[in-house]
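pls read this protein.

:::
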Amino acid sequence: MDLGLQGKHAIVTGGSRGIGKAIARELAREGVDVAIVARTQADLEATARELATATNRRILPLAADVTSKEQVERVVAEAARELGGLHILVNSGSHPGGSTTATGPIETVVDEDLIEDFNIKYVGALRCARAVIPFMKDAGWGRIINISGGNARNAGLVHMTKTLSVQLGRHGITVNCIHPGTTRTERTPSLLAARGTQLGVSPEEAERQDFAPDSPRGNAICRMVDASEVAFVAVFLASEKAWAVSGELLSASGGAGRSVYY
């Protein structure tokens, strides 16, 4: 299937590793030139070399902190200038390790950690969208994809997704959100090894024990969703074929959990 992405230009925050990196790779495989954004220039450059070699597309590494309006506007303008415009934004930036600094019993949550987490994930996505939208309007075409999750600040991200989809639809821009669930990334092998040691079992058995009880697929094939599988969903939402989908939330968790999303 031709997804209509050949020659498009994207910017992916959190693009040096994890889900963001996987999405950048799959977009590039579909013919997209991609600017990847994260805080650490060395990590970005290593990822850019890897993805450019694997996909034969241009991968532009741009260091920025999404909590800074000035830095976001700078890298978005640079990406648009270097790539020749922007058509796709993937908001995958988050606190390293996710939102672990602002979880647990409410009496143990540190206000500053919660505010920082919200500033990175939610307000960071808003800053990036605000900076990219003028370029999408100029192109008369755009896709914004927010990578969300299951905790409180992500509920706000879902609401922002719907609000932006209503505001931007007349400009040919769709906005959607993905809930990944627990996902296999570069960090997963070491985490499973540590969990296996804690349980006194192999990493594979630790994965089965931790995920089988919540999986509708049974013990035999129970596993985490891989970051590449989340990326396949994101690439479809970024494509011409996804015109009919906007303002929506898709769960890419492998069917885990019992939640119903509205």
Remarks:
- The first helix runs from residue 18 to 29.
- The longest strand covers residues 173-179.
- The mean pLDDT is 89.
